[in-house]
Amino acid sequence: MSTLDKLLIRGIRSFGADTAYVVEIYTPLTLILGANGCGKTTIIECLKYITTGSLPPNSKGGAFVHDPKVEGEVETKAQVKLKFRNVNGKQMVCTRSLQLTLKEKTQTMKTIENLLEVYDEATGERQSLSGKCASLDTELPIHLGVSKAVLENVIFVHQEESNWPLAEPKVLKDKFDDIFASTRWTKALEELTKQKKKREVDLRTDRANLELRKERRARYLALESQRQVTARRLEAVHDRMQEIDTESARLMAEIDALLPAMRQGQALATELAGVRETRRVLLEVQVETKNRIVQLIDDDDDDTLRAALESHRASVMHSSQSLTSIQARIDMLAAERATLAESMSWNLTQKGGLARELERLEQLKAMRRDLAAVLVADMPFAAAAAGMPRPPDESLRPMLAERLREAEHAVQDARSKHSGIIAGLQTELTAAQTREQVAKQRQEEAAMVVTRDSHLMSAKQKDLDRLALEQADMATLQEQVEDITKEVTEKQAQLRTRTEAQQQTRLRRALEELDAQIRMANEELQMASRDAEHRAQLAAREKDAAARAKAMDAAWDAVESVCTTHGVRAGRDLITARGSSVMLEATVATTAETARNSRRQLDAKLAERARIKTVAEERIAIAQQQRGVLQTQIAHKEREFATVAMGAAYIPAPAGGYPSATAEMDAKLAHIAGEIADGIKQRKFFDVMELMADRYRREAEETHQCPLCRREFVEAEDVVGFEEVLDLTTSDLPEEIAKIDAKLAGLDAQQERLRGGRAVATHLDHLRQQMAALPDPAKEHEKLLSAGRAMQDVKQELDIADRELMGLDTLLVAIRDVVRAEADANKLRGDVDYLRNTANMAQSSKTMEEISTELGRLQEQREGLQRDLTKEITQMTNLQSDLSSRQSSLARLQQSVNDKAAALAQRDSIKAAIKKLNEDINQSRQQAEAFSREAREAHDHVDQLSVQLVRNKSESEQTVSAAQSVLDTLRMRVAQFNSVHDQVETIERSRPLDSMQRIEADLCAIKAKMDGLNADETQFRDDVAKIQLAINELSAQESNIRQNLEFRARERTIADKNQQLVDLEARIRDHDALSYSRQMNALQEQLSTFTAEKHRLDGERGQQQAQLERAVEDIEGEYKNAEKEYVDARVKVRVTDLVIGDLEQYAKALDIAIMKYHTLKMKELNEIIRELWVNTYKGNDIDAIEIRADKETRGARAFSYRVVMIKGDAELEMRGRCSAGQKVLSCLIIRLALAECFCLNCGVLALDEPTTNLDRANTEALAESLARILENRRSQVNFQLIVITHDEEFMRLLGRAEYADYYWNVSKDENQHSVVERVAIQSRAR
To answer: pLDDT at position 388, please?
Structure first.
């Protein structure tokens, strides 16, 4: 039997990771005491985790391990270790280690070690049994002697899950099914049924396989006869084929001698056709090239033209290089101009910023003056110095700082004035409140003592009443013990009688004799079935032969249908007479080969037509490509031209439009030049007006006369009036001059763009001329259509040849079907002859029906004996189960009698305790009244002090608030003044006026540079236009020369092709191809005759060889072990039949055992629950509680569970109808009963806070019940009760029974870490 020894905890929950705490598990009682939240329940969680591997509820994500954030670490390593003895008494140690790691946003927990070790006490060595988590979870419950379900739901139950007996029906069913292991046994029963059904399916398959084995043996004998006949036929065919091969070799030698001459003629014809086609294509291309040439050059030779071409190319390259160089210089000018523009923009931006900075400086100075005036007015000396001048703004800062210090001192004086008075009142108030709280606390303690003693006295009184009732129940229990003792004696006598009768032995011997008779009958049935096999095979082969004859006729009909459908005439005489199918196959094959040769010639013709069409398509594609390239270039240039023309002023076009883009651009340039000349004239006119006005003004001032009429100016006012008239006349001149300058600048820019666009216009006109010179697409398309029609004619001829060839191929397939059908019919006729000669017509002494009837009778007798044997076994099992149940009931009743006797002996001690409790209650009530008076007096004093303290605080706050307001206002104004003053000084240090003058000088220099760059760029663009025009002219001349050279080269190629045609026609006339063709046809006819005969013989040989190979393959492969396979199949059928019967018996026995076990266990469980409830519960509203197991409709072995409470004859479901205390007590009693029923090998039981929601009477009754259990189990070595509680009185009640000398006290240290200490119970009592 297994027992627990020690538990080590490190780094779990609130237990620190630096210290390991060891808790010893005593026998029979281990007490653990501690306040709420100190870590008591962690001990239960560790016991459950170490034994089952299951984490506590709501502890996923690492909540089970000590949080590393508490220690300021990133990870925590935890360990739980259990030292125990297993069911065999061996000392073992189980260790589980965890690690919790903090990450950025999450934390992860993982298992780092799982170890189970066994300790050999003889040698002192440790041996590791398991290191895997899953293996450890499985092995540990086995070593403890209980299932994992019992460990989780009975022995180590968490406080949050302790009320599961009153949970929802589904949860309750799952728990009880796990405890009873119902699912495991039900699955075993289902597996037996499943295996039985599977074996039944296998039996049907094996019986069908047995029939097939019979047919295979008969087939083997027929194949051996067929093999010998086929071998003789193959020899004759082989000799004739050798003779045909000799004659065919002679004919092939003569044909090979003629082949070189035939090939030479075909090669000459093919070469002639290719040369003609090449010449035709060259002539067409030559005509097209001549039409595209702008100027046909006839005077110069080719070398002169090539030299001119190279000269033009060099000129174009030189002009392109010059153009590139000038364009690079234009780009450099543009980049420099852009840099100057950016510099001008930056300087203008800086100029605007400096202007805004100067404006802001004036605003800040005005704001500083205003703030200084306000601050000086608020100073203390303002009234005395009202008539004096204000000090400068720069010298105000020291005066303002001194004023701030004075205001701060005023606030501090106001605060310190009242602080001493308030502190004295606060101290006196705190002392009074402390006296009041102490008095109230003592009053509450006295009241709690009165309540506690009252509950204890009530519980003791109920114990006296219960003992009076138990004394009456003693006689009834003793009578039940005597009755059950008699029943046990009777059951034992019945068991001995059945054992001595040996009925099972006699039934088993009778079964063995019947099995021997059944085996003999099966052998006789096998012999009779072999005789019937031959007859069945003969009938099947005759039927197959008739079907094959019909199939052969149908194949001939299919051949005739193909000839009619496709119009094939080859072999019609053989088809009509239905003669040799092999000869017909050779004839049709020869005709098909001839048709394939014709089709290959048509393929060559089609390829030639396709090549011609491809050449035409390439010419069209080249033209389209050139047209597409030109269109793209024209569109690009048109966009460039439109962009340039868009920026120019609008000029009406002539009536017929412009003849070219160059003409349009020249017209726009002329218009812009006229506008520029007009603008320059107007600008000069305004300059003259301005000069004349200045000259008139100086002359009037010097001579005091009017410059126009020479009138004297007598008064100075007349001169002033004349100057005003001049100013009025010239006031608009600057604005008009600026407008004219802006207009001239715009016209210059437009003229520059139009000059650059003239080169674009020239290139655009050249591209349009090239587009117009391309060949007409309609004519080229017509040539392509002509080539396509020629290809279509050849394709039609190919379709006719394909249809003819398809008909021949279809006919050949149908003829080969006839050949195969004829071979199959011959083979079946041989099989029928063999079966008729070798059939065994012998008759056995009995028919198969008689043997089958006898076999059925023997099997029925065997089933009857098997049922009797099963019934006998079931009766013996039931008798043994009843005897065991009666013995268990007798032991429980005897235990109840002993418990009641021990309880009656405590009557006098209970009466004395009641008297002592009554005296303690009276004394505690007097103390409570005295403490109540003291608390009221202290409370009145506290009220008086509170009112006085509030009044003083209010006065102090008003005085300090006024001084603080003055200080805050002064601070704000001083801060504003300092901020404005600092900004003024910062701006003045940067000297913005000097920066403004420097920027204006830079702007004038930049404008002068930009004017010079514009003039240089205009000159460069004129040079670019001239060079581009020269390049275009040279490119046109170069293209014309290149086309002339290509034309001359193609003329020479055409002359060469004409001479080649003349030579080939002469060679073809000299070659006599007709005589060679006649000789070749004669030789091919003779060769075709021999080939047809050889094909016929080859077909026959192939059929015979295939038959021989199939026969040999079947004999040595498929039918090699036919006899052995038949015997094995018979044995397998018999064995499977016996296995099915055994599985059915096992399933029935297991079903009965499951039901019986569940019934007995539920009965035992309810008896224990009733007894514990009666002894523990002190109320009168519930007599007893029980667990009801109701069968579900879906199966006989499926139960639904519920807890009911009984009062008299009434029975109600307890869930949802009981109080919290009744709920806790009932769940606790059910767990105690389950532990007594299912924990025979492991006597450990842990109770976590068992007194939750229990009143004092029920708490004391529970302590007494546990004490009785401890007393009864004291002699049991492996009984260990672990009680965890915060109730010191409950611990005292359990501890005074002298079942434990020590208890474990759980508390928390200054770091809030749990600490476990062992304390002697006697020291706690003192």
So the answer is: 45
